[in-house]
Amino acid sequence: MFIFQNPIQPITYFEYYSENIKMLYQKTQPDPDLNFFNNIDIDIFNKILEIYKDTMFNVREHKISSISYEYEVEAEYDDTQHNEDVNEINVQDLSKINYMFNKAGCGLTNDEAHLIGITMDQMSQLEKFKSIRYWGKIIGLKRNYYILECDWKNKELEYKLRLLNLVFNTNKNKVQHEYDDENENENQEDVELEKYILSEEENGFFSKTTLSAPIKKNINEESEYLFDSIKSEVCSLLPTELDNDDYLSHEIFGFGANKKSYFVTNQLNDSWIELPLLKPHHIIQSRNIKRYFTGNLESPVESYPLFQGLEKHYLRAQIARITAATQISPRDYFVLNYNSNLYKWRKLNTFQTKAMSHKWIHEYIVNSDYNPLSVYDLLEPNNWVHHTPLISEKGVTKAWSNIIESEGDLQQNSEKIELNCKIKVNSEMGRGDGDYLDIFGDLSHDAYADEMPPWKFELTNRFDHTITYATVRSNLWPGAYAVARENLLDYTYHGWGLKWNAFSFTVQPLSGYQPSDPYRFDSGMTAEIKDPTRDDELRYLAIVNKRKEDRARMKIGVLQPFSAADEDEERILNQHDYD
Amino acid sequence: MDVKVFHYLIDALKVAGCSIYEDNIPVLYNSLIRLQSENHFNSVYLWGRIETLSNDYYIAYGHQKDPIENRIFFYTQNLLEWDIMPTDWSILETDLVRRIKTKLYGNPRYLETIDNSNKKSQETTEYPIAPSVVMKYDDYVESGEEDVQNIENITFNDVISINEADEIMETESFDDPSNLKSSIKEEDRLAITVQMIDNECHIVPRGYFYKLPNGNIIKAPYFKGLDYSEIGNEQNFLHINPQYCRPKGPTNDVRPDYNGSIDFLESIDKDIPKGCWTSRILSNRYFIIHSLLWPGAVFFQDMNTGIHGYFYNGYGLKNLDLPFMI
Q1: How far does CA A549 lie from the centroid of its chain?
Q2: Of A174, A261, A275, B116, which is most buried, counting CB atoms within 10 Å of its CB?
Q3: InterPro entries this protein is in (chain B) (predicted)?
């Protein structure tokens, strides 16, 4: 150790140095540089390097493709103009946004931001998503979750729903459920049709991916995951779903709380896994429990008010709750997207089409003529609104429960309802700003949690107000932030994924009275019966003795733990007999 | 977190999920350096931030000679002027602070009142308020500890120090607050809270402090941080708590490589409840320990350089629900 050639304060720290030198002679200390190298997990660095390398090629391709793409657009502009403007993908510019987050104290490190940015870029090239953004990070006990929030394209949704139908139908046929009613023929036709479509789509999918297979290895895996998750989800949950009558059926893919799908990963260089669909009972049950995340998606959630699901379901429920509660924007920043109403849903069953035609209620886009508020105005709760639908007590959004109700009410009057719906829609259209909907609610109407305001408004820089951002922090969900300044807005979550309670968490006691001993009032036990005869007693004794012998034999054979309850019972019976 | 390494640990803070406003960092750095020079401190540490409903408190401390016993705490709200934290308070106030479950208001002169007559009525409702839970919890802990090992010193969970435990006995006679409406200034509450957190959560790696034969405690001048083989063991992290610095009689459960000059502090592996610390290496570089009992208390170490620090960024509230959550 060369440091001891010239130690600081040699007299004062004499003992320390002598001990250190003794240690030095006792055991060989590893070279600190080698120590560093030996303990680093080199695989991770390799993987990350791979990702960076891939992006390098990707960028080149991207450039080429975008150029050729423009020509195409010019050529068939007339066709696409009407259809959908979903060809553009709305990808969050994470490096810019992260700068903002850092100002607000909820940011990522540069490494993380780059890797996530690259992943989002790769996902956008799959051309399946309408928008991709970084949702946030949830800290777990063992590992953390990074979460991406993605919005599927309508076309993609349609495909997924059809796939779902297909799986559902085949499943139904297998189980021979009573559900197969009048439109069995139709179903079968559909199945064939869908098989056809599916194969077509799959072919397309594979051809698409093989083109860039070496580059998008991660994403390939991921989409396989998607595929799996959807299938297994439906198959496994079907029986329980049918049993649970107390809960509403879950919102279909792409609607309400399930409008966006969430991809999580523990490590940024690993594959991203799509979370399962949100089920209402998960929401309801997750409201009753309070647990840390462990960081393993497949681990069971052990809690007293029962949570029926794995950690991924719990995670999904918490994400949905946080999303519904804390995604906020300055007033008029987002507007409803009426254009998305025009999309025609094809080849879905009636219910799905109906639901999806209502999807536009939650479809918001950035207001193109939003005039920015000053930073000081942004400190007022009146100027902020929720733009995500709230989740009701039943665990679904209001729009969905409306749809369910209208569906369940009167099947035969469906025409009437549709008329009503149309009228409703019209009135909504007439109003334009949609302020009676449950989205775009004012922050100043939010509930207080035990005298504590739900939001905290602050400037990020109190010294120089020209460069400051306005932050809104949620007190109810510690870790939820929204940052805004002029035209920039973003929100994220960076915390433990738990709600703040005004009262400490207590397990709800068992409610109601427990029924008293049922035998006490059972007349069969107290009514007079005939005394046993001698024969009966003998027969009874024979049985008892035989059992005793059996047990004795068992005991000799295997050392079994002594079960007191059985013995006691026997003894009582014997006594009774001999008395 | 030592002010000298403040800038190196910003990324670690971000990874640990307790970063502060980035624009405040240069201001804090400068004002802390000034604090050090004005008070002739050997070193100054940024202790943490306590979030409030309006202006957050930033807490710092410095020490002149003894890095454990003689720490002086300061707080600030405007990041420029540091106020000294009150240091003495009555046992009654400590008790009050334990009972309060609301967040701080961000005004040092705010008077927090707690109505004791309220307590009984609330206990009958479905949600018992904090105090009852605290009591039950503490009792449980104490009894459990005594059963397992007859340690003569206090249980870790007992926030108040030993000498105060004696006081409890004395004060119990008149400390019958059943119909007493008590109040506490937020400044005091802050000080007590910080003290509680510091006693329970402020940890240093083993070997960071060195006790010289004459009893002086110094920071080991060539301590390089724990290496990969050491971070897995909870015994290598020690509480900074003045109570633990006293000389103890020989105990039978010492570690095999016991070294009296660095093991004079209590390690965290006996903390209650079990699993109240969670540690991992994040983004392949930063080693981070979260305290779950006081959410927001974090110890982190950059594995590449060995720079380490401790920071608290939270509401200053204890997580009483912990047994349900792990």
Answers
A1: 58
A2: A261
A3: RSP9
